[in-house]
Structures
1.
Amino acid sequence: MATIEDVAARAGVSIGTVSNVLNRPQAVAPATRARVQAAITALGYVPHAAARALVAGRSRTIGLIVPEVTNPFFADLARGAEEVADDRDLTVMLYNSNKAPGRELRFLGQLESQRVQGILLTPVNQVAEALSDVVARGTPVVLLDRGSGHRNLCSVAVDDRVGGELAATHLVERGHRHLAFVGGPFTVHQVAERLAGARSVTDAAGARLEVIETTGLTVAAARAAATGLARRPAADRPTAVFCANDLLALGVLQTVTRERLRVPGDLAIVGYDDIAFAAAAAVPLTSVRQPRQQLGRVAAQLLFEEIDDPGRHGHRQVVFQPELIARASTRVTAPAS
Amino acid sequence: MATIEDVAARAGVSIGTVSNVLNRPQAVAPATRARVQAAITALGYVPHAAARALVAGRSRTIGLIVPEVTNPFFADLARGAEEVADDRDLTVMLYNSNKAPGRELRFLGQLESQRVQGILLTPVNQVAEALSDVVARGTPVVLLDRGSGHRNLCSVAVDDRVGGELAATHLVERGHRHLAFVGGPFTVHQVAERLAGARSVTDAAGARLEVIETTGLTVAAARAAATGLARRPAADRPTAVFCANDLLALGVLQTVTRERLRVPGDLAIVGYDDIAFAAAAAVPLTSVRQPRQQLGRVAAQLLFEEIDDPGRHGHRQVVFQPELIARASTRVTAPAS
DNA sequence: AACAGCGTTTATAACGATTCAATAACCGGA
DNA sequence: TCCGGTTATTGAATCGTTATAAACGCTGTT
């Protein structure tokens, strides 16, 4: 593969001049510049990023580690981050930790070894001890969606408690006095917060909120819970459920529909995340939407702030407010006769 | 940040020895090795990947460009490729072209500039001219899922025609004589092939196959088609539909269910891709599954084959066979009275 | 004719690792 | 005691680029 030296030889100039053509073209006489450009295209010269990174001391990339690439939440977040990175001509290296702490650790090491300018990370569990080392050695890190507790790091997240409040308020305002929360396990911080938010609203409104814990956040996990609900006598049944995410909500919708309940007539449903399927469901689903792409943008901005001026930079924990998207699954219907 | 020189100084050895500890520990006396290791951990030394890549002439990574990270097909494919790369201690750099030719081009350039050992690519449209340059300059490329026509490149793909045959055979064997194919646009190679496969089977069996073209492969796109179907008089209605993907199939399922048809009693449904939702649908969906992870594995293996011995390597086009997963949506039911 | 000033170009020293030939240290055997 | 043969360690060259200080060639002034 052609090197800068080959280009220089072909253009009859020194390598310094070629480097100038590449990095500060205005400093090179137009005729020379043209000659060098010609040599570059003729040889198909592609600069060697590693050599550049070596002199510069850092590479022109930032790292992004997410627990699930498949999840549109993180895909959108990545888009947001990329957008900001593009403005600086930086590449975002995307890694999928798949919720495996081992993978997270490995990628962290790789990114550090590549001397990335900074790292955006959704930590798998607690923030690894290894992370503190990375930060101590000088690579800025911004936490995504989790671990906002860390005061010595920047982080961005969405307020799940507010999300819970939005959902519950929406239902209470529509006259529901007996709600159910479906979700779990409660060890997942997000789930617990969403419940807490809902609880605060129902308590204040004097409404009833029963809690149905599931083992996970999948369609399948919703089945058991929903079957139980649907088979209760109407008087004993909540008139609305708030699900910790849209998959659960879809599961509930499917199951109770099969059990011949009408949605929203017999049971109103609110989901969380506003995935693409929410709008496309048999009964379009009311859901709580998080500003995903903005989350990524702001995270990247915080990171660059720290990169640009590590001294003056003060760590910030940015919390976004979610938004409720009302659809048919909570529409007020004429009371059944 | 600590360099190899700092480590050498602290351990009282030369940098050559430190390098040996890192790359061929058995060549270093145990006592020295221990001393160096201690220095490494004490200083938190992390080797500089760019410096390594510079001497080596290539980095320890391969690139993977997919059109949609959100799509589980590509996520699984990535996992397969990673698995193989891990065995060689290589990192997979994942890029999401988002079907934008501009992004694809940019990433291709970045990967080449990083001197990756090879590239796995799902080309957005036709194979870009730029790609030939990349290949000509010596970076091996394997095409994923598309562009198998190129005889001068390796590629892996799944036989969509066989997929169509599987689906149609399954339905014909269950006694269906009037089928419908739902999908589109037919400019998408995969869609056209699936239809062609189905057609060959129905023709051979003397069954009827009507074609309902949709504008896209989404739940929403299925609505119109399904509504039309459901409202036809039973005699004029196909007894089974084969959808070009699972999203369409789910849309059809939802819509015809709402129109009071029973699945599979009144209408059997076969999807394609076997996404997670297929099994979790109201009526679990029969679907054609592609060996996604294996696709990634084999692609990576082909790439490494070429990397290891570019001279002897002969380009191959590997085509996998899909598999039909039978579920409730095509179960044979007692004929309605 | 000498020189200051300017715009271009060049030579060279980094950057942080790996590699490999050369050297040093050590051992047992003659 | 010296030697051949290991085994361990070192020093220097090298990778491809950027940055920088010095050199160069003109022009216009004095």
2.
Amino acid sequence: MEPTARGLYRAKEFAAKAGVTVRTLHFYDRIGLLVPTAREANGYRLYSDADLERLEQILALAFVGFELDRIKRLLAGPPLPLEVALRLQRTIIAQEKHRLELALAAIDEAESSLARADESERWQAVAHVIKVFKMQNDYNWTENYYSPEGREKLAEMRRTTPHETVEAGERAWAELIAEVEAAAANGTEPASEAGRALAQRWCDLVRAFTQDDPDVSAGLNQLWSDQTHWPTGFKRPWSDAADAFITAAKAARG
Amino acid sequence: MEPTARGLYRAKEFAAKAGVTVRTLHFYDRIGLLVPTAREANGYRLYSDADLERLEQILALAFVGFELDRIKRLLAGPPLPLEVALRLQRTIIAQEKHRLELALAAIDEAESSLARADESERWQAVAHVIKVFKMQNDYNWTENYYSPEGREKLAEMRRTTPHETVEAGERAWAELIAEVEAAAANGTEPASEAGRALAQRWCDLVRAFTQDDPDVSAGLNQLWSDQTHWPTGFKRPWSDAADAFITAAKAARG
DNA sequence: GATAGGCCATGACGTAACGTCAAGGTCAAG
DNA sequence: CTTGACCTTGACGTTACGTCATGGCCTATC
């Protein structure tokens, strides 16, 4: 029948198995995200079951909103960043969801105000109502915690920091958080030598992230401590127990 | 001082007032969405307070997710489509929100399964968990109500129908819905002459939308009647009272 | 042996909503 | 006369592909 008997599939068949289009496969191949295991002599792509597994991982990560470029690096890198990446992605999704909730509420409000408005001011009515909701979060509630200078510096840092640095930082955070979680779980004293060492590393990482800028670190501190104003669904990337531990350990360092 | 004293602003000042960038103003100008009231002799853009009002309307509609091209037509067109457009947009946002909720739940599940998985199968664990959530809605829960043929035909229709037709349809729906709401509110008998006339128009519009295709209309009917499975936040673009009225009126027509 | 039809390939261009960069014009202050 | 702040337009980059267009490969059929 087909020349693709033992676990190898040509483009169309493979695409159908995975639920994507052939053009998507071409694209993933070109950007190096999913290169087919082999090619036939005539150049036809041949995909294996291992390729299918990788594609499913890709699609899973894409579903939770990762960019393809990010997915490529996640799949290539060491295993640790996965946890951290998922947690960070969670906060992004939670923010987007919050934005959509505001938009929904804004539409509902706009509809009823539209019913009350007379012909001439319909647009103003809608614009006004939505503007109110828009300003409620201004697209990015975290920014409210920073001073204008802090905001600018943060944006600047985000633009200029290369992603290797970002990922190294994420890895460092992941390791430290894991250790803090473990310490909190096994009853280590926050004020002990080990606890204070963890607190030291924590503060060092914060300083590395904020690049020692007071405007940025002030906003960051407020953001994390003002739990009552977080949007629904937003979480710290570490547990309450770990938070209590590290807070106590930092205090013990004085 | 500036040459822009009496209610006219140059690009930077105007952008600051409205909270957008100058480049955005350039872009809106080029696509004809917001053309400045005037130009100075040297070609500098001059914006008026009326421009600011329009820009605020644009930003409001953009906040609830309308595309710029759509916004342009909404602001140009007759007032009626605004209500309908808002209601339709609501369902889209509600769907997106639902998707994000699934993604959040998927991440939470993935995290805990990640804690249980050993090194070698971490990726499979995550991919598997997320795949489950992904399939729960398959990006588009409405499609579950259609047969494969119905889905294809719907997609085909969406590709080929020009937006003027779509908007004419929306206007027709808006008018009809408004009349049905009114009839339901003022106690008109569904079985009366007027009620059956409304039902007739309703069925005609459905036939126009489905283009008389049985696969499409079957799916559509199931979708609207299976209220218990709608995602949270999803609503009919008409009230329960109107729904009861039109159902009874259709029944009266036999 | 020619041809029709199905699958495959690559490459160019389009999408949405701008950001970024580049090259250059305008104008008031020093 | 230069500096610096502001303005202009145009070209290109971004994301994740879809949509042609063109042409090769291969098999079945006439």
